[in-house]
Amino acid sequence: MQKLVLIRHGESVWNNENRFTGWTDVDLSHTGHMQAINAGKLLAKHGYNFDVGYTSVLKRSIKTLHHILEELDHLWIPVTKSWRLNERFYGALQGLNKEETIQKYGAEQVHKWRRDPNELPPAIKPDDDRYPGKDLRYCNLTSREIPLTENLSETMQRVMPFWVETIVPAIRENRKVIVCAHGNSLRALLKYIDNLSDEEVTNLEIPTATPWIHELDDELNTIRHYYLE
Ligand SMILES: O=C(O)[C@H](O)COP(=O)(O)O
Fold first, then answer.
1. What does the pLDDT look like over 84-136, one tens digit per residue?
2. Pairing state of beta strands 52-55 and 79-81?
3. Does 21 carry a binding-site annotation?
4. Is 87 an active-site residue?
5. Among protein residues, the one whose CA lies closest to atom 8 of ligand 1
C-alpha cells in the first residue's frame, strides 16, 4: 500500500478577495502562509516525510509546498514544477469578483462556469494582458497548449500526462510523493485517477492547505482517502 499526499495551496490574496484567479500568479495571504505552515506541522506530527514533491508554476502553490517541506526539514528533496498542475485557466473571468459576477450573470450561470466540467468560461483573446503566451514561464508551450479559457475536462486532459508520465513512475519506484496544487487541478486529477462521474466531481470541494491522504493499492487505485486532522 502506498500513501499519496495531495494538498491544495493555502488561501491566496484573491481567495480572500473572492476573485477568480486561474493562472494569475497571486501570492498567499497572511492566512495562507499560516495555513501552509500548519499543514507542514500536522504532517510532521503524523510522521510523514517525502522523497519527491510536485507543484505548479504558480507561487501560491510553490510557497505552500515550500512551507510544508520547511516544517518537515525536507527542503532538500527534489521538487518538480509543472504548468500542467496549474489552476484551471479561468479565461475572461480571471480578476473578476465572484459575487459581482453572480449579480451580473446570475447564480446558475456562475455555478456552471465554476463547477460544470464541460462549461467553458468566456475566453480571452491573445492580445489580452492575461494571455499566458506573454509570460516567460510558458515560453516552451505550443500555442495549442496555451489556453484562452478552460473547462474542467480540458484541465484534466493536460493534468493527466503529468500524472501518467511523471507521478506514477515515482510512486511505482516506491517514492513517497506529495502533490501541492490547486482546487481545480486537483479535482481534475481526482476525476481521472478515481474515475469520478461528472456529478461526483461537481460536488467535490477541496479545502485550502489540508493534507489529503490517498491510500493506493498496487494498481494505484484509491483504497480510501481522508483529510489529516
Ligand atoms: O481560480 C480560482 O478562482 C480558485 O482557485 C478556484 O476557484 P473556484 O472554486 O471558483 O473554481
1. 999 999 999 999 999 999 999 999 999 999 999 999 999 999 999 999 999 99
2. parallel
3. yes
4. yes
5. 114
Count up the domains in the chain and report the number: 1
Kindly give the number of the ligand 1 atom that is closest to the alpha carbon of 14: 3
* Residue range of the domain that includes 78: 2-227
Domain harbouring 53, CATH code: 3.40.50.1240
Compute the residue count for the chain: 229
| d(CA 207, ligand 1 centre) in Å | 11
Ligand 1: centre distance to CA 62 (Å): 17
For the chain, the average pLDDT equals: 97
Query: Which ipTM value was assigned to this complex?
Result: 0.95
- Could you tell me what percent of the chain has a pLDDT over 70? 100
Ligand 1 centre and the CA of 47: distance in Å? Answer: 31
Q: Residue 60, annotated ligand binder? A: yes
Answer yes or no: is 88 a known binding residue. Answer: yes
Is residue 9 flagged as an active site residue?
A: yes
Task: Identify any residues that bridge with 38 across adjacent strands, giving them in sequence order.
Answer: none
Instruction: For residue 37, give every residue at least 6 positions away whose Cβ sits within 8 Å of its Cβ, in sequence order, or none.
Output: 67, 70, 71
